[in-house]
Batch of 2 targets.
Target 1
Amino acid sequence: MTRSSNPGKSRWLAATIAITVAIAMAAPLWPEPAQSQAPGRPTNIGNLVRNFERMAFPEEDQIEEWSTIKRWATPISAVVKGDGGAEYRTKLRVLFAQLEALTGLEFSVPESDSAATTDVIFSDRDWYRSQAARSFQEPDQVQCFSNTSANIYGEIQTATVVIPNDLGTERVGECLAHEIMHTLGFPGHPQRTFYSALGNGNSPEVFTVNDLIIIRALYDPRLTTAMLRDEVLATARIVMIELLERVKDSDDPLGALAQRQPVNWWEFGRPGNFGDLPAARF
Ligand SMILES: [Zn+2]
Protein backbone atom coordinates (compact mmCIF):
# COMPACT_ATOMS: atom_id res chain seq x y z
CA MET A 1 0.00 0.00 0.00
CA THR A 2 1.24 3.41 -0.83
CA ARG A 3 -0.16 6.72 0.17
CA SER A 4 -0.68 7.73 -3.44
CA SER A 5 -2.91 4.77 -4.14
CA ASN A 6 -4.94 5.58 -1.06
CA PRO A 7 -5.17 9.34 -0.86
CA GLY A 8 -8.00 9.07 1.64
CA LYS A 9 -5.85 7.34 4.20
CA SER A 10 -5.31 10.16 6.67
CA ARG A 11 -8.97 11.14 6.49
CA TRP A 12 -9.91 7.53 6.92
CA LEU A 13 -7.69 7.12 9.95
CA ALA A 14 -9.25 10.20 11.49
CA ALA A 15 -12.67 8.81 10.77
CA THR A 16 -11.68 5.55 12.39
CA ILE A 17 -10.72 7.31 15.59
CA ALA A 18 -14.00 9.22 15.66
CA ILE A 19 -15.88 6.12 14.71
CA THR A 20 -19.47 5.82 15.78
CA VAL A 21 -20.64 3.07 13.50
CA ALA A 22 -18.68 0.54 11.52
CA ILE A 23 -20.66 -1.86 9.46
CA ALA A 24 -19.56 -4.70 7.30
CA MET A 25 -21.08 -6.28 4.31
CA ALA A 26 -20.68 -10.01 4.62
CA ALA A 27 -19.36 -12.06 1.75
CA PRO A 28 -22.18 -13.44 -0.37
CA LEU A 29 -23.50 -16.88 0.44
CA TRP A 30 -23.90 -17.73 -3.21
CA PRO A 31 -23.12 -16.00 -6.50
CA GLU A 32 -25.83 -13.63 -7.57
CA PRO A 33 -27.13 -13.58 -11.12
CA ALA A 34 -26.61 -10.27 -12.89
CA GLN A 35 -29.42 -7.93 -11.99
CA SER A 36 -30.25 -5.53 -14.75
CA GLN A 37 -33.05 -3.91 -12.84
CA ALA A 38 -34.17 -4.76 -9.35
CA PRO A 39 -37.15 -2.73 -8.38
CA GLY A 40 -39.11 -5.59 -6.81
CA ARG A 41 -42.54 -5.16 -5.35
CA PRO A 42 -43.23 -3.37 -2.10
CA THR A 43 -43.86 -5.66 0.85
CA ASN A 44 -46.63 -5.12 3.43
CA ILE A 45 -46.62 -2.47 6.15
CA GLY A 46 -45.83 -4.90 8.97
CA ASN A 47 -42.71 -6.09 7.17
CA LEU A 48 -41.68 -2.56 6.33
CA VAL A 49 -41.93 -1.36 9.92
CA ARG A 50 -40.16 -4.44 11.29
CA ASN A 51 -37.29 -4.03 8.88
CA PHE A 52 -37.16 -0.26 9.19
CA GLU A 53 -36.50 -0.88 12.88
CA ARG A 54 -33.77 -3.42 12.16
CA MET A 55 -32.09 -1.14 9.63
CA ALA A 56 -32.40 2.27 11.27
CA PHE A 57 -31.14 1.23 14.70
CA PRO A 58 -27.73 -0.28 15.41
CA GLU A 59 -27.85 -4.03 15.80
CA GLU A 60 -26.25 -3.92 19.23
CA ASP A 61 -28.92 -1.44 20.35
CA GLN A 62 -31.89 -3.45 19.19
CA ILE A 63 -33.46 -3.44 22.63
CA GLU A 64 -32.51 0.06 23.72
CA GLU A 65 -35.73 2.01 23.87
CA TRP A 66 -33.90 5.33 24.21
CA SER A 67 -31.95 4.93 20.97
CA THR A 68 -32.63 7.47 18.24
CA ILE A 69 -32.24 7.68 14.50
CA LYS A 70 -29.37 9.39 12.73
CA ARG A 71 -29.51 11.01 9.32
CA TRP A 72 -27.94 13.73 7.22
CA ALA A 73 -29.25 17.28 7.51
CA THR A 74 -26.86 18.99 5.10
CA PRO A 75 -25.74 18.41 1.48
CA ILE A 76 -23.73 15.28 0.81
CA SER A 77 -20.66 15.47 -1.39
CA ALA A 78 -18.81 12.26 -2.14
CA VAL A 79 -15.42 11.84 -3.73
CA VAL A 80 -14.17 8.60 -5.19
CA LYS A 81 -10.56 7.89 -4.28
CA GLY A 82 -8.01 5.26 -5.07
CA ASP A 83 -6.96 3.33 -8.15
CA GLY A 84 -9.80 1.76 -10.09
CA GLY A 85 -12.52 3.86 -8.49
CA ALA A 86 -13.16 6.45 -11.18
CA GLU A 87 -15.07 4.05 -13.42
CA TYR A 88 -17.72 3.66 -10.70
CA ARG A 89 -18.45 7.35 -10.40
CA THR A 90 -21.45 7.11 -12.73
CA LYS A 91 -22.97 4.30 -10.67
CA LEU A 92 -22.58 6.42 -7.59
CA ARG A 93 -24.18 9.39 -9.35
CA VAL A 94 -27.18 7.30 -10.30
CA LEU A 95 -27.62 6.17 -6.69
CA PHE A 96 -27.17 9.76 -5.54
CA ALA A 97 -29.75 11.14 -7.98
CA GLN A 98 -32.24 8.70 -6.48
CA LEU A 99 -31.26 9.69 -2.96
CA GLU A 100 -31.62 13.34 -3.78
CA ALA A 101 -35.17 12.73 -4.91
CA LEU A 102 -35.98 10.59 -1.87
CA THR A 103 -34.36 12.62 0.90
CA GLY A 104 -34.81 16.15 -0.40
CA LEU A 105 -31.11 16.79 0.31
CA GLU A 106 -28.45 17.59 -2.27
CA PHE A 107 -26.18 14.73 -3.26
CA SER A 108 -23.18 15.32 -5.51
CA VAL A 109 -20.18 13.38 -6.75
CA PRO A 110 -17.58 15.97 -7.79
CA GLU A 111 -14.25 14.95 -9.28
CA SER A 112 -12.63 16.39 -6.19
CA ASP A 113 -13.78 18.35 -3.18
CA SER A 114 -11.60 19.18 -0.21
CA ALA A 115 -14.74 19.65 1.87
CA ALA A 116 -16.42 16.40 0.80
CA THR A 117 -18.54 14.75 3.46
CA THR A 118 -18.04 11.26 2.10
CA ASP A 119 -15.02 9.33 0.92
CA VAL A 120 -15.52 6.29 -1.26
CA ILE A 121 -12.14 4.63 -1.12
CA PHE A 122 -11.07 1.94 -3.54
CA SER A 123 -8.14 0.38 -1.76
CA ASP A 124 -5.62 -2.25 -2.58
CA ARG A 125 -6.10 -5.58 -0.90
CA ASP A 126 -3.31 -5.26 1.68
CA TRP A 127 -4.54 -1.97 3.02
CA TYR A 128 -8.11 -3.21 2.97
CA ARG A 129 -7.12 -6.27 5.00
CA SER A 130 -5.32 -4.23 7.59
CA GLN A 131 -8.25 -1.84 7.99
CA ALA A 132 -10.86 -4.60 8.12
CA ALA A 133 -8.80 -6.43 10.74
CA ARG A 134 -8.93 -3.39 13.00
CA SER A 135 -12.70 -3.15 12.98
CA PHE A 136 -14.05 -6.64 12.54
CA GLN A 137 -13.66 -9.96 14.28
CA GLU A 138 -13.88 -11.93 11.07
CA PRO A 139 -12.31 -9.64 8.48
CA ASP A 140 -12.18 -12.38 5.86
CA GLN A 141 -15.97 -12.37 5.80
CA VAL A 142 -16.15 -8.65 5.19
CA GLN A 143 -16.50 -7.84 1.52
CA CYS A 144 -16.55 -4.06 1.98
CA PHE A 145 -17.42 -1.73 4.80
CA SER A 146 -18.32 1.79 5.80
CA ASN A 147 -18.53 4.02 8.81
CA THR A 148 -20.24 7.24 9.67
CA SER A 149 -19.85 9.85 12.36
CA ALA A 150 -22.63 12.02 13.69
CA ASN A 151 -22.86 15.01 15.99
CA ILE A 152 -24.74 15.03 19.26
CA TYR A 153 -27.95 16.02 17.46
CA GLY A 154 -27.93 12.80 15.49
CA GLU A 155 -26.89 14.56 12.29
CA ILE A 156 -24.46 12.53 10.24
CA GLN A 157 -21.39 14.60 9.39
CA THR A 158 -19.00 12.34 7.54
CA ALA A 159 -18.94 8.89 6.03
CA THR A 160 -16.33 6.59 4.59
CA VAL A 161 -16.88 3.61 2.34
CA VAL A 162 -14.02 1.21 1.71
CA ILE A 163 -14.11 -1.21 -1.19
CA PRO A 164 -11.19 -3.42 -2.23
CA ASN A 165 -10.16 -2.56 -5.79
CA ASP A 166 -9.79 -6.18 -6.88
CA LEU A 167 -13.51 -6.98 -6.74
CA GLY A 168 -15.50 -7.67 -9.91
CA THR A 169 -17.87 -5.06 -11.29
CA GLU A 170 -20.94 -6.78 -9.91
CA ARG A 171 -19.55 -7.07 -6.41
CA VAL A 172 -18.52 -3.42 -6.49
CA GLY A 173 -22.05 -2.50 -7.53
CA GLU A 174 -23.47 -4.47 -4.59
CA CYS A 175 -20.94 -2.90 -2.24
CA LEU A 176 -21.78 0.61 -3.42
CA ALA A 177 -25.54 0.28 -3.02
CA HIS A 178 -25.18 -1.58 0.28
CA GLU A 179 -22.59 0.67 1.91
CA ILE A 180 -24.09 3.93 0.65
CA MET A 181 -27.37 2.84 2.17
CA HIS A 182 -25.57 2.25 5.47
CA THR A 183 -24.10 5.75 5.33
CA LEU A 184 -27.58 7.31 5.04
CA GLY A 185 -28.33 6.33 8.63
CA PHE A 186 -29.06 2.62 8.36
CA PRO A 187 -26.51 0.87 10.56
CA GLY A 188 -28.45 -2.39 10.72
CA HIS A 189 -29.56 -5.07 8.27
CA PRO A 190 -33.01 -6.37 7.36
CA GLN A 191 -34.31 -9.88 7.72
CA ARG A 192 -33.05 -12.26 5.08
CA THR A 193 -36.48 -12.45 3.49
CA PHE A 194 -36.67 -8.68 3.01
CA TYR A 195 -35.62 -7.71 -0.51
CA SER A 196 -33.12 -4.90 -0.04
CA ALA A 197 -29.70 -3.61 -1.04
CA LEU A 198 -28.90 -3.95 2.66
CA GLY A 199 -29.58 -7.67 2.62
CA ASN A 200 -26.49 -9.54 3.72
CA GLY A 201 -25.04 -12.07 1.36
CA ASN A 202 -27.84 -11.67 -1.13
CA SER A 203 -28.23 -8.05 -2.10
CA PRO A 204 -28.90 -6.41 -5.46
CA GLU A 205 -26.78 -3.68 -7.03
CA VAL A 206 -29.63 -1.21 -6.87
CA PHE A 207 -32.07 0.08 -4.33
CA THR A 208 -35.23 -2.01 -4.34
CA VAL A 209 -38.72 -0.54 -4.06
CA ASN A 210 -38.63 -1.55 -0.38
CA ASP A 211 -35.42 0.45 -0.02
CA LEU A 212 -36.93 3.50 -1.71
CA ILE A 213 -39.78 3.44 0.81
CA ILE A 214 -37.50 2.87 3.82
CA ILE A 215 -35.10 5.64 2.77
CA ARG A 216 -37.91 8.05 1.99
CA ALA A 217 -39.44 7.31 5.41
CA LEU A 218 -36.20 7.95 7.33
CA TYR A 219 -35.98 11.38 5.69
CA ASP A 220 -39.62 12.29 6.13
CA PRO A 221 -39.94 15.63 7.97
CA ARG A 222 -42.35 14.03 10.44
CA LEU A 223 -39.48 11.96 11.82
CA THR A 224 -36.82 13.75 13.88
CA THR A 225 -33.52 12.72 15.41
CA ALA A 226 -34.87 13.79 18.80
CA MET A 227 -37.54 11.08 18.83
CA LEU A 228 -37.07 7.95 20.87
CA ARG A 229 -37.47 4.52 19.39
CA ASP A 230 -41.19 4.00 20.03
CA GLU A 231 -42.11 7.38 18.62
CA VAL A 232 -39.87 6.82 15.60
CA LEU A 233 -41.56 3.52 14.83
CA ALA A 234 -45.08 4.81 15.34
CA THR A 235 -44.37 7.76 13.06
CA ALA A 236 -42.55 5.64 10.49
CA ARG A 237 -45.61 3.39 10.33
CA ILE A 238 -47.91 6.34 9.59
CA VAL A 239 -45.49 7.65 6.96
CA MET A 240 -44.99 4.30 5.28
CA ILE A 241 -48.70 3.50 5.12
CA GLU A 242 -48.98 6.68 3.09
CA LEU A 243 -45.94 5.88 0.95
CA LEU A 244 -47.22 2.38 0.22
CA GLU A 245 -50.45 3.87 -0.98
CA ARG A 246 -48.55 6.15 -3.35
CA VAL A 247 -46.36 3.37 -4.72
CA LYS A 248 -49.07 0.74 -4.98
CA ASP A 249 -50.29 1.36 -8.49
CA SER A 250 -47.38 3.39 -9.79
CA ASP A 251 -45.01 2.24 -12.50
CA ASP A 252 -42.57 4.94 -11.38
CA PRO A 253 -42.01 4.32 -7.63
CA LEU A 254 -39.20 6.87 -7.41
CA GLY A 255 -41.36 9.57 -8.93
CA ALA A 256 -44.22 8.65 -6.61
CA LEU A 257 -41.98 8.92 -3.55
CA ALA A 258 -39.82 11.91 -4.50
CA GLN A 259 -39.51 14.86 -2.14
CA ARG A 260 -37.74 16.91 -4.82
CA GLN A 261 -36.37 16.79 -8.32
CA PRO A 262 -32.76 15.66 -8.45
CA VAL A 263 -30.61 18.73 -9.09
CA ASN A 264 -28.55 16.67 -11.47
CA TRP A 265 -31.51 15.43 -13.44
CA TRP A 266 -29.89 16.59 -16.68
CA GLU A 267 -27.35 13.86 -16.42
CA PHE A 268 -30.02 11.21 -16.45
CA GLY A 269 -33.05 12.44 -18.29
CA ARG A 270 -35.68 15.06 -18.70
CA PRO A 271 -36.86 16.96 -15.66
CA GLY A 272 -39.79 15.31 -14.01
CA ASN A 273 -39.20 11.99 -15.64
CA PHE A 274 -37.81 9.75 -12.96
CA GLY A 275 -38.36 6.77 -15.18
CA ASP A 276 -35.32 7.97 -17.11
CA LEU A 277 -32.99 7.42 -14.19
CA PRO A 278 -30.85 4.63 -15.58
CA ALA A 279 -31.10 2.14 -12.74
CA ALA A 280 -31.38 -0.42 -15.50
CA ARG A 281 -27.88 0.36 -16.68
CA PHE A 282 -26.36 -1.34 -13.67
ZN1 LIG B 1 -23.91 -4.20 5.84
Target 2
Amino acid sequence: MPETLATVTAYRRRDHAGVAQEVLDGAGIEAIVEETDVAKVRVDNLDALRAGDVLNRVDVPLDEIEEADEAKRNEVCPACNSQNVEASRKWQLFGVIAMAVMGIAIAVSRTDAAFFILAATAMYVLTANRWRCVDCAARWD
Ligand SMILES: [Zn+2]
Protein backbone atom coordinates (compact mmCIF):
# COMPACT_ATOMS: atom_id res chain seq x y z
CA MET A 1 0.00 0.00 0.00
CA PRO A 2 1.40 3.48 -0.86
CA GLU A 3 2.24 5.90 1.88
CA THR A 4 -0.02 8.70 0.69
CA LEU A 5 -3.42 7.65 1.88
CA ALA A 6 -6.52 9.77 1.97
CA THR A 7 -9.59 9.19 4.08
CA VAL A 8 -12.54 8.84 1.77
CA THR A 9 -15.17 8.32 4.38
CA ALA A 10 -15.65 7.06 7.91
CA TYR A 11 -18.23 5.09 9.78
CA ARG A 12 -19.11 4.49 13.35
CA ARG A 13 -19.37 0.79 12.71
CA ARG A 14 -16.54 -1.41 11.49
CA ASP A 15 -18.88 -3.57 9.41
CA HIS A 16 -20.15 -0.52 7.53
CA ALA A 17 -16.58 0.44 6.68
CA GLY A 18 -16.08 -3.14 5.57
CA VAL A 19 -18.98 -2.86 3.13
CA ALA A 20 -17.50 0.34 1.68
CA GLN A 21 -14.16 -1.39 1.39
CA GLU A 22 -15.72 -4.27 -0.56
CA VAL A 23 -17.54 -1.86 -2.86
CA LEU A 24 -14.26 -0.08 -3.62
CA ASP A 25 -12.51 -3.39 -4.10
CA GLY A 26 -15.18 -4.33 -6.65
CA ALA A 27 -14.41 -1.10 -8.49
CA GLY A 28 -10.73 -1.95 -8.58
CA ILE A 29 -9.71 0.48 -5.87
CA GLU A 30 -7.56 -0.85 -3.10
CA ALA A 31 -8.84 0.41 0.24
CA ILE A 32 -7.96 -0.19 3.83
CA VAL A 33 -10.02 0.27 6.95
CA GLU A 34 -8.25 2.10 9.71
CA GLU A 35 -9.83 1.91 13.09
CA THR A 36 -9.32 4.80 15.43
CA ASP A 37 -12.30 6.08 17.37
CA VAL A 38 -14.18 5.56 14.13
CA ALA A 39 -13.67 3.18 11.21
CA LYS A 40 -12.00 5.16 8.43
CA VAL A 41 -11.92 3.99 4.84
CA ARG A 42 -8.66 5.07 3.27
CA VAL A 43 -7.35 4.81 -0.27
CA ASP A 44 -4.36 6.02 -2.24
CA ASN A 45 -4.51 9.79 -2.73
CA LEU A 46 -4.69 9.26 -6.49
CA ASP A 47 -7.80 7.10 -6.11
CA ALA A 48 -9.56 9.35 -3.62
CA LEU A 49 -11.77 11.25 -6.05
CA ARG A 50 -12.78 8.12 -7.91
CA ALA A 51 -13.40 6.28 -4.64
CA GLY A 52 -15.67 9.08 -3.46
CA ASP A 53 -17.55 8.83 -6.74
CA VAL A 54 -17.94 5.08 -6.46
CA LEU A 55 -19.25 5.31 -2.91
CA ASN A 56 -21.67 8.09 -3.80
CA ARG A 57 -23.21 5.90 -6.45
CA VAL A 58 -23.69 2.98 -4.11
CA ASP A 59 -27.10 2.69 -2.62
CA VAL A 60 -26.22 1.14 0.69
CA PRO A 61 -27.62 2.68 3.85
CA LEU A 62 -24.47 3.16 5.82
CA ASP A 63 -24.07 5.23 8.92
CA GLU A 64 -21.52 7.63 7.48
CA ILE A 65 -19.80 10.21 9.61
CA GLU A 66 -19.50 13.66 8.17
CA GLU A 67 -16.18 15.44 8.38
CA ALA A 68 -14.37 12.24 9.10
CA ASP A 69 -11.03 13.83 9.71
CA GLU A 70 -12.23 16.18 12.36
CA ALA A 71 -11.29 15.14 15.83
CA LYS A 72 -14.03 13.62 17.87
CA ARG A 73 -15.50 16.23 20.17
CA ASN A 74 -14.49 15.28 23.63
CA GLU A 75 -16.55 16.20 26.58
CA VAL A 76 -14.71 18.90 28.53
CA CYS A 77 -15.50 20.19 31.99
CA PRO A 78 -17.11 23.65 31.65
CA ALA A 79 -15.70 24.70 35.02
CA CYS A 80 -12.01 23.75 34.79
CA ASN A 81 -11.59 22.57 31.14
CA SER A 82 -10.43 19.18 32.32
CA GLN A 83 -10.95 16.28 29.94
CA ASN A 84 -10.93 13.95 32.88
CA VAL A 85 -14.69 13.57 32.94
CA GLU A 86 -17.01 10.64 33.26
CA ALA A 87 -20.64 9.94 32.55
CA SER A 88 -22.43 9.67 35.84
CA ARG A 89 -23.65 6.21 36.62
CA LYS A 90 -27.23 7.19 37.13
CA TRP A 91 -28.92 3.84 36.82
CA GLN A 92 -26.36 2.16 38.98
CA LEU A 93 -27.20 4.69 41.68
CA PHE A 94 -30.90 4.15 41.15
CA GLY A 95 -30.41 0.41 41.50
CA VAL A 96 -28.69 0.86 44.86
CA ILE A 97 -31.41 3.19 46.14
CA ALA A 98 -34.17 0.93 44.86
CA MET A 99 -32.74 -2.08 46.66
CA ALA A 100 -32.44 -0.14 49.91
CA VAL A 101 -35.96 1.30 49.68
CA MET A 102 -37.54 -2.04 48.84
CA GLY A 103 -35.62 -3.72 51.64
CA ILE A 104 -36.93 -1.23 54.19
CA ALA A 105 -40.45 -1.28 52.71
CA ILE A 106 -40.69 -5.04 52.93
CA ALA A 107 -39.31 -4.95 56.49
CA VAL A 108 -41.98 -2.47 57.62
CA SER A 109 -44.71 -3.79 55.28
CA ARG A 110 -45.14 -0.50 53.45
CA THR A 111 -44.53 -1.47 49.83
CA ASP A 112 -47.17 1.05 48.68
CA ALA A 113 -45.11 3.94 50.05
CA ALA A 114 -41.93 2.44 48.61
CA PHE A 115 -43.51 2.61 45.20
CA PHE A 116 -43.90 6.37 45.42
CA ILE A 117 -40.37 6.82 46.72
CA LEU A 118 -39.02 4.78 43.84
CA ALA A 119 -41.04 6.76 41.30
CA ALA A 120 -39.71 10.02 42.76
CA THR A 121 -36.17 8.64 42.75
CA ALA A 122 -36.53 7.57 39.13
CA MET A 123 -37.64 11.09 38.21
CA TYR A 124 -34.65 12.54 39.99
CA VAL A 125 -32.24 10.08 38.40
CA LEU A 126 -33.60 10.81 34.93
CA THR A 127 -33.24 14.56 35.31
CA ALA A 128 -29.85 14.46 37.02
CA ASN A 129 -26.90 15.81 35.08
CA ARG A 130 -25.17 13.41 32.80
CA TRP A 131 -21.51 14.37 33.11
CA ARG A 132 -19.23 14.67 36.06
CA CYS A 133 -15.74 16.17 36.24
CA VAL A 134 -13.32 13.90 38.05
CA ASP A 135 -10.98 16.82 38.84
CA CYS A 136 -13.36 19.43 40.26
CA ALA A 137 -16.60 17.44 40.69
CA ALA A 138 -18.63 19.83 38.56
CA ARG A 139 -21.75 18.32 36.99
CA TRP A 140 -23.44 19.29 33.77
CA ASP A 141 -25.56 17.84 31.02
ZN1 LIG B 1 -13.77 20.30 36.29
